[in-house]
């Protein structure tokens, strides 16, 4: 029914609009649902967003066989890389020794 409680005239546009089902539920109430019903969808989205980052790490490790490349953007970072290269003994900054192996 439309406003005022009157029925629309047969064959009018208002009758077509009014004849749509009010709800898909048997009781005719709104589909609010419970808060925990959203958790499976959130878990799927979280997993889908985490997969690229985790896969990148393992693919890089598989392809290169070592840790990710360090970059020196500041002079202090460069000096740390040079220190690691000097202390490694193999002239490579990524093959560092532990503190117990440094003379």
UniProtKB/TrEMBL annotation:
<keyword id="KW-0812">Transmembrane</keyword>
<keyword id="KW-0472">Membrane</keyword>
<dbReference type="InterPro" id="IPR017384">
    <property type="entry name" value="NADH_Ub_cplx-1_asu_su-1"/>
</dbReference>
<keyword id="KW-0249">Electron transport</keyword>
<feature type="region of interest" description="Disordered">
    <location>
        <begin position="1"/>
        <end position="27"/>
    </location>
</feature>
<keyword id="KW-1133">Transmembrane helix</keyword>
<feature type="transmembrane region" description="Helical">
    <location>
        <begin position="38"/>
        <end position="60"/>
    </location>
</feature>
<keyword id="KW-0813">Transport</keyword>
<feature type="compositionally biased region" description="Basic and acidic residues">
    <location>
        <begin position="15"/>
        <end position="27"/>
    </location>
</feature>
<keyword id="KW-0999">Mitochondrion inner membrane</keyword>
<comment type="function">
    <text>Accessory subunit of the mitochondrial membrane respiratory chain NADH dehydrogenase (Complex I), that is believed not to be involved in catalysis. Complex I functions in the transfer of electrons from NADH to the respiratory chain. The immediate electron acceptor for the enzyme is believed to be ubiquinone.</text>
</comment>
<protein>
    <recommendedName>
        <fullName>NADH dehydrogenase [ubiquinone] 1 alpha subcomplex subunit 1</fullName>
    </recommendedName>
</protein>
<keyword id="KW-0679">Respiratory chain</keyword>
<keyword id="KW-0496">Mitochondrion</keyword>
<comment type="similarity">
    <text>Belongs to the complex I NDUFA1 subunit family.</text>
</comment>
<dbReference type="GO" id="GO:0005743">
    <property type="term" value="C:mitochondrial inner membrane"/>
</dbReference>
<dbReference type="Pfam" id="PF15879">
    <property type="entry name" value="MWFE"/>
</dbReference>
């Amino acid at each position: 029914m439309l406003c005022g409680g009157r029925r629309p005239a047969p064959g009018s546009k208002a009758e077509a609009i009014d004849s749509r089902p009010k709800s898909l539920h048997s009781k005719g109430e709104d589909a609010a649902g419970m808060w925990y019903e959203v958790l499976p969808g959130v878990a799927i989205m979280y997993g889908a967003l985490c997969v690229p980052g985790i896969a990148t790490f393992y693919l890089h490790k598989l392809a290169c066989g070592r840790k990710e490349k360090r970059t020196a953007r500041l002079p202090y970072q460069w000096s740390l890389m040079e220190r690691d290269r000097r202390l490694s003994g193999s002239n490579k900054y990524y093959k560092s020794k532990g503190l117990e192996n440094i003379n």
